[in-house]
UniProtKB/TrEMBL annotation:
Residues 395-464 form the Chromosomal replication initiator DnaA C-terminal domain. Belongs to the DnaA family. It is found in: Cytoplasm. This is Chromosomal replication initiator protein DnaA. SMART domains: AAA, Bac_DnaA_C. Residues 121-134 have a biased composition (Polar residues). It comes from Marinobacter similis. CDD domains: AAA, Bac_DnaA_C.
Length: 487
């Protein structure tokens, strides 16, 4: 049985399980096939136990089917597959083989990195959250020049985080990390769309670590800050201090890692810091707007390391959670909000929690100034402009109808499994427009197109970007759609 069998098995499982389950438990597994025995390597004990309990039986069945009815023996252990047991990129292999901090190759600082250094300046080190009125900054125990950079928002704790189906796993994993930093989930990689609570959870972990162990060094920063500091350190000939500082913390929290894209020197520096921390048993937590493998212009070896701990998605909250969040936020602001009013707002604002909070703040401010009670008609009036904007927002439905009409095909064709060119290209265009013009995540878009996988959507988006450069017809079509849908 060739070792690609595991990859085929993964393809089958990918279609069977929801993306979050697949990405969290199955995708990080590595395989090694020897003498009819398939060894699966899990990044940590937790993943291993979970897979054993929940998925192993199904894995065996799929392998049996793929192997003409003969089941290979499957065993699991914690660790990484031996070198060359799976097709991995060259850089990954070299990292695995060394298992230690590598010699630095001295990548150049790119123009982009210089740009970040200038724009990040000195005062933007802390992620200001203008939408949160209770935002307070608490410096944590850090040293020297970098002191001003590491702040935790005291308002972002586990207590103030409302749990729901959409964030349950992320919250549980975060709590575990806070209780046992540097333990089984290292690194913790939290990903998901904008305004869904990734930063909140990250700060909650940091705050909890400090609460449990006063004096713990927790460094929180956005990835741009890391880039800016590194460039500055290079300019000032202080790169050793930079390294020493970042490698001395108990926990390093890096927000929005996607901004490392194309910043080669920073990626390299971060890679070494990352290795040093992991080897030292120090915790690394990273947030990103997408799954590690989907980050473009990021080194493979870095992406692969992100998957060594636990990767968890934060999804958009469903209605009940949105209501609970509104009730909690109103309570924190000492405002009485009826559940009817909370439902009304939660039904209207569905994009993300940040917008939800913004809408609530607007309603509260209006009620405060006018002395009115917060009722659905009052909310409707207060949020008039915001709701008008939302109504104007493009829906996937609308995109599908517009694209189908334009190419003279049926919407059902776009959702079907048909693969003829007359259907696949319009489908890719529609997927790409959905990504560009709506707030839906890749898995949601995939679902809306006949239950396709999020990687298919990603592929469609890339393809359309490419075609717009090489095919004037597609470029013109796309521009027409943008005009049709947004004006
Ligand atoms: N489950 C939740 N309970 C309470 N508040 C929440 C929850 N989820 C998000 N929020 C609030 O929503 C706001 C936006 O959250 P946050 O900044 O953590 O989002 P994010 O996922 O990091 O977004 P971005 O990708 O833009 O960085 C914050 O004020 C946060 O407190």
């Amino acid at each position: 049985m060739p070792n690609t069998m595991w990859h085929q098995c993964l393809e089958v499982l990918r279609d069977e399980f929801p993306a979050q389950q697949f990405n969290t438990w199955l995708r990080p597994l590595q395989s090694d096939l020897r003498e009819g025995q398939l060894m699966l390597f899990a990044p940590n004990r937790f993943v291993m136990d979970w897979v054993n309990e929940k998925y192993l039986r199904r894995i065996e069945e799929v392998l049996k089917d793929l192997n003409g009815g003969q089941a290979p023996r499957v065993n699991m252990k914690v660790g990484s597959a031996p070198r060359n047991s799976e097709p991995v990129s060259r850089s990954e292999v070299s990292v695995r083989s060394s298992g230690a901090v590598q010699e630095e190759s001295g990548s150049r600082v790119t123009e982009e990195e210089k740009g970040v250094a200038v724009s990040a300046g000195d005062n933007t080190s802390v992620r200001a959250k203008p939408s949160n009125p209770s935002y307070e900054r608490r410096p944590v125990q850090v040293e020297g020049d970098i002191k001003h950079q590491s702040f935790l928002n005291e308002g972002f704790t586990f207590d103030t985080f409302v749990e729901g189906k959409s964030n349950q796993l992320a919250r549980a994993a975060s709590m575990q990390v806070a209780e046992n930093p540097g333990g089984a989930y290292n690194p913790l990689f939290l990903y998901g769309g904008v305004g869904l609570g990734k930063t909140h959870l990250m700060h909650a972990i940091g705050n909890e670590i400090v609460r449990r162990k006063p004096g713990a060094k927790v460094a929180y920063l956005r990835s741009e800050r890391f880039v800016a500091d590194m460039v500055k350190a290079l300019q000032l000939n202080a790169i050793n201090e930079f390294k020493r500082y970042y490698r001395s913390v108990d926990a390093l929290l890096i927000d929005d890692i996607q901004f490392f894209a194309r910043k080669e020197r920073s990626q390299e520096e971060f890679f070494h810091t990352f290795n040093a921390l992991l080897e030292g048993g120090q915790q690394v937590i990273v947030t990103c707007d997408r799954f590690p493998k989907e980050i473009v212009d990021m080194e493979e070896r870095l992406k692969s390391r992100f998957g060594w701990g636990l990767t968890v998605m934060v999804e958009p909250p469903e209605l009940e959670t949105r209501v609970a969040i509104l009730m909690k936020k109103a309570d924190q602001a000492n405002v009485k909000l009826s559940s009817e009013a909370a439902f009304f707002i939660a039904q209207k604002i569905r994009s993300n929690v940040r917008e939800l909070e913004g809408a609530l703040r607007l309603v509260i401010a209006n009620a405060h100034f006018t002395g009115s009670e917060i009722t659905p008609p009052f909310i409707r009036e207060s949020l008039k402009d915001l709701l008008a904007l939302h109504e104007k927002q493009v829906s996937i439905d609308n995109i599908q109808r517009t694209v189908a009409e334009y190419y003279k095909i049926k919407v059902a064709d776009l959702l079907s499994k048909r693969r003829t060119r007359t259907v696949t290209r319009p489908r890719q265009v529609a997927m790409s427009l959905s990504k560009e013009l709506t707030n839906h995540s890749l898995p949601e878009i995939g679902d809306a197109f006949g239950g396709r996988d999020h990687t298919t959507v990603l592929h469609a988006c890339k393809k359309i970007v490419e075609l717009q450069e090489t095919d004037p017809g597609i470029r013109e079509d796309y521009q027409n759609f943008m005009r049709l849908l947004t004006t």
